[in-house]
Amino acid sequence: MSDSDDDIFKKKKPSKKKIEQQQKQQEQQLLLQQQKQLKQELNQTEQQMNNPKHPKLVIYCRICTFPVEFCSFSKTPKECKEWLKTSFNELYAILYPEEFKLEQEKQAALLEQQRLIAQHQLLFQPLGKKKRNKTKVKESDMVYLKVKERNRNKFITTLSGLEKHGLDIKETSKKISKKFGCGSSINEKGAIELQGDLTEELIEWLPKEYPNIKEDMIAIKDK
Fold first, then answer.
1. How many CA atoms lie within 13 A of 181 on its CB side?
2. Residues with Cβ < 8 Å from 136, sequence gap 6 or more?
3. Between the CA of residue 210 and those of 5, 61, 134, 167, 196, what are the distances in Å?
4. 3-state SS class at 57
5. Distance between CA atoms of 128 and 115, rounded to whole angstroms?
6. What is d(CA 134, CA 217) in angstroms, rounded to the nearest whole number?
7. Three-class SS of residue 38?
8. Is 93 exposed, middle or buried (0-12, 13-18, 19+ CB in 10 A)?
């Protein structure tokens, strides 16, 4: 046996980890190639799609190994759908239009809810910063606003502390209800409860309607 033959046998075989990495890279390249081919297939003109000589690209599910059009007949349809949605979202939208539309609507509703929460939080932020720069007000002069979410996108504003400034609670409750066109009631603690989030309106309206209540005296309770 020659020296060159000895050198060949002395070479180390690739490790199991390296082989697995190479296989994974090949699978990823194959998946990217299939995605590219699918995109080309979806973007072809109607004339090309109606041509019987035009070859049709077949995508096989990585979960059940069936063509993706037949995943519903497999033993793992849910897993197949998740794989298809992750790997070929455009094709998933075509094969399962109702489920795709429902997921889009849920996502839109979630984003809208997050937007409303963020908007609600921003409403209090400028007031909080402004209060820190103001002189300290006595507790006996403070008027408090508290907003509580009753149902989805429905709020109740509680207004308390008006009696400290000599105001008639029942009369004030009726005046606010008429001014902002909202339902109002008086709870067991003697505070006014108003339908809706009226914090911004009350912060502006109270000092104008009752000059002895300054803007510095109005605070928002978190709890």
1. 0
2. none
3. 102, 71, 20, 9, 22
4. coil
5. 20
6. 10
7. helix
8. middle
H/E element, 144: strand 143-151
What structural domains and CATH numbers belong to the chain? 24-98 (no CATH), 120-221 (3.30.780.10)
CA gap 100, 93 in Å, rounded: 5
Measure CA 24 to chain center: 33
Which tokens in the block code for residue 104? 């889009």
**What totals of helices (H) and strands (E) does the chain contain, helices first?**
8, 5
What is the rounded distance in angstroms from the CA atom of residue 75 to the CA atom of residue 88?
20
Distance between CA atoms of 146 and 219, rounded to whole angstroms? 9
φ/ψ (deg, to 5) at 168: -80, 120
Please write the tens of the pLDDT for every residue from 55-84: 667 788 888 988 888 888 888 888 998 888
Among residues 173, 169, 171, 172, the alpha carbon closest in space to that of 183 is found at: 173
Phi, psi (degrees; rounded to nearest 5) at 15? -70, 160
Query: Per residue in 10-43, pLDDT tens?
Result: 555 667 777 778 887 887 787 777 777 776 666 6
Q: What is d(CA 8, CA 10) in angstroms, rounded to the nearest whole number?
A: 5
Whole-model pTM above 0.70? no
Angle at 43 between CA 66 and CA 85, to 5 degrees: 40
